[in-house]
Amino acid sequence: MKRTIITILCVLLFASALGMTLFSWTKKANAEVAAGNRAFTAQDYETALQHYSAAQSQVPGQAEPLYNAANVYYQQQALDQAQQSLEQALTQPHKSIEAFIRFNLGNVAYLTKQFDAAVTQYESALRIDPADQEAKYNLELALLQQQDQQNQQQQDQQNQQQDQQQNQQGQQDQQQNQQGQQGQQDQQQNQQGQQGQQQNQQGQQGQQQNQQGQQDQQGQQGQQQNQQGQQGQSGQPQDQQPGQPDGQVAGVQPQQGLTSEQARQLLAAIAGNSKTLLQQLQMYYNISGITPDKDW
Questions:
Q1: Would you say residue 115 has pLDDT above 80?
Q2: What is this structure's pTM?
Q3: What is residue 145's predicted lDDT score, i.e. its pLDDT?
Q4: Per-residue pLDDT band at 10 (split at 50, 70, 90)
Q5: Average pLDDT score, the chain
Q6: How many Å apart are CA 138 and CA 2, to the nearest integer?
Q7: Computed from CA positions of residues 5, 118, 133, 18, in that sequence, does the dihedral angle turn out positive or negative?
Q8: What is the share, in percent, of the chain residues with pLDDT greater than 70?
Q9: The pLDDT of residue 20 is above 70
Q10: Looking at 49-58, 102-111, 260-269, which range is the least confident one?
């Protein structure tokens, strides 16, 4: 609603300023301006621009044709061109309508939400004409909008800072999460490495125990063999020596020269006598010092 009031005020001020552009120029320039004013009233804005441009070329250094052209741009909602035309009018040496130029520059700045520039232009217009009530009213509006804009900018900055902080916090949380996951993976790998090391040690211990068991088994086998060897040496019967005749007494070597007849006689004597074979042999061969363990 406030912007609508400003727009109406601008239209009224622009329209009222048109009457002030009718100065005593040359007749041809005045004719161009008059033709431009009639076209403006008829809303034939392109024709009006042509007449204002012709008047400016005929009488350089005048601000009024540029100001009137800004009216046309404003009605066409070409605010950038209106601003350029007004700023160009300020550079002219003859600008008896500077207060109007400043006021309308403030209106263009207000409509484009350049509230700082609008405040500056309205204040400039009031310095030229302190009694301008429309300029005072528009200045108050511009100041309110300027304050709201500054508050909004501050709020936007705070929101942006909060968003940045949240983004940074989110990145930090993500990094910590990644580090935690990496730490868990490292811990798992460490545990797996320890388990593998324990299994390796257990495998080595099992291998050592296996080797020790084989050595113990070999030692037991050797011990058994040793015991068997000792048993074979300590009184167990041994096989008869090869070539030894049956019935020959161990430790008695047969004498050479015993004939078959002598042997029969010896056996016959033994058969009729109670003496043992060993006693007969001792008597026969004169062998002494041998005591038999038992009778034959």
A1: yes
A2: 0.51
A3: 96
A4: very low
A5: 75
A6: 9
A7: negative
A8: 64
A9: no
A10: 260-269
- The Cα–Cα gap between 47 and 33 comes to 11
What's the pLDDT at 219?
Answer: 64
What's the chain look like in SS3? CHHHHHHHHHHHHHHHHHHHCCCCCCHHHHHHHHHHHHHHHCCCHHHHHHHHHHHHHHCCCECHHHHHHHHHHHHCCCHHHHHHHHHHHHCCCECCCHHHHHHHHHHHHHHCCCHHHHHHHHHHHHHHCCCCHHHHHHHHHHHHHHHHHHHHHHHHHHHHHHHHHHHHHHHHHHHHHHHHHHHHHHHHHHHHHHHHHHHHHHHHHHHHHHHHHHHHHHHHHHHHHHHHHHHHHCCCCCCCCCCCCCCCCCCCCCCCCCCHHHHHHHHHHHHCCCCCHHHHHHHHHCCCCCCCCCCC
Structural contact between residues 129 and 99, judged by C-beta atoms closer than 8 angstroms:
yes
Token pair, residue 99, equals 């207060």
* Angle subtended at Cα 124 by Cα 119 and Cα 128, rounded to the nearest 5 degrees: 145
Q: Which two tokens stand for residue 241?
A: 């020596």
